[in-house]
Amino acid sequence: MKFLRQRLDNLRNLSQKNKLLAFLKPVINAADEIYFGTDKVTTLPHILDSMDIKRYMSLVIVALIPVALGAVYLWGLRVLAVIAVSYIFGGLVETIFAIARKKEIHEGFLVTGLLFPLILPPNVPLWMAALGVMFGVVFGKEVFGGTGRNIFNPAIVGRIFLSVAFPSAMTTSWLMPFNQGTGGFLKFSADAVSQATPLTAFRSERLIADFGNLFLGGSPGCIGETFRLGILIGGIFLIFAKISNWRLPLSALLSVVICAGIGNFFAPDKFAPALFQIFSGGLLLGAFFMLTDPVTGPFTRAGKWICGVLFGFLVVLIRGLSGYMEGVMFSLLLINVFSPLIDRLVLGVKYPKIKK
If DSSP states are collapsed to H, E and C, what string results for 166-201? Predict the structure, then answer.
C-alpha cells in the first residue's frame, strides 16, 4: 500500500503542475478514496445521519454479496460478465461527467453498478446492459447534478428504459436456474429453456409456484431477485448496521400483505395471495435495497411510513390491474417522485408556520 500511496501522490503532483494532466484529478482522487478512505460525509439527506460515503457504500455492497453469490450459483458465471459491463460503462459515464465538471468522482456508483445488473434478466445481451446502465446514470443522476442531488434511483431508471425500449427482450425467454451440485459456479450460463415467471404463470394460468423454490431461487426471474433468502440476509444486515431504516421495508411489506389480502378476497382471478406476492418478482429486493435509498427516499419518519404503505399499495395495484406483471420498478419510480412532496407535507403539519 505504501507503493500505491507514493504513486498516487506523484500523479497528483503531476496533475497540479501540468495543465494537460489536470483532467486526471478526479480519477486520482477517486482511487485515493477507494483505497485509503475519505473524510467526507454524504450530501443531504445522508448528512442527517452523519454517515460517510465510504461506510455507506461499503456496507451496502457487503449486504449484496449473498445476493450476488446466489445469482452466480443460479445463473452461471455470465452474471460476472454482466456486472463487469455495468461497472465499466457506468463508471465511464461517471468519469466523463466528473472531468467535464472538474469535480470528484463520487462513490455512489459503486452500489448502482452492482445493483443494476441484479435487476436484469439472466440472458440480457451485454450491449443492452451497457446501454441501460449508461442511460440510468446519465438521466437518473447526472442530469440532476450527481450523487446526492438525484431524485430518481439510477438503477431503476436504466431498468425502465430497457423495459420500454426492448420489451420483448426484457419480458420473454426466461431461463431455468441451476439448482443442483455446484450450480453455475462451474458453468457460464443457465440452460436455454424458456419458462414463465411465477407472476406470469399466475396471470395466465392461476398457478401458484412452490414457496420453497421462490425462497431459494428455484424459479425464473431476474438475476438478483430470485434468491430471496440472500436478499433477506442482506436487508436485515443493513437494518442492524443502521444503514437503512426498518420503517420503509416493514411498512411496504405490511401494505402488500393487507392490500393483496383484500384484493385476493374480492378478485382472486386478478390479485395473487399475499404471501405469494411477497416472495414473487423483485418485491423484496426493491423493498430492502432500493426503497431505502437515502437520496431518493423520504427522510422524515412519518414520510417513511407513508411511502412504504404507498409503495406496497402501488405494487399490488399494478400487478393486479395493469398489463405489467411486475409493479416494483414503476412503484419505486413513483415513490421517488412523491417523496419530496410527502416530506414537505409532513414537515408542514409537524412544524406549522406561526401566524403573526
Answer: CHHHHHCCCCCCCCCCCHHHHCCCCCCCCCCCHHHH
110: domain CATH number? 1.10.3430
Reference 248, options 261, 235, 237; nearest CA is: 235
Q: What is the pLDDT of residues 72-117, one digit of tens each?
A: 999 999 999 999 999 999 999 998 988 888 777 766 788 999 999 9
The candidate with the shortest Cα–Cα distance to 121, out of 172, 164, 49, 56, is: 172
Q: How many domains does the chain contain in total?
A: 1
For residue 351, is it within any domain?
A: no
The neighbour count for residue 352, using CB atoms within 10 Å, is 8
Q: Which of 164, 176, 205 is nearest to 74 (CA)?
A: 176
Domain that holds residue 161: 53-344
Q: Is residue 23 part of a domain?
A: no
Residue 86 CB contacts under 8 Å (≥ 6 apart), including other chains? 113, 114, 116, 117, 129, 130, 133
Between CA 85 and CA 330 the distance in angstroms is 24
Report pLDDT digits (tens) over 265-300.
999 999 999 999 999 999 999 999 999 998 888 999
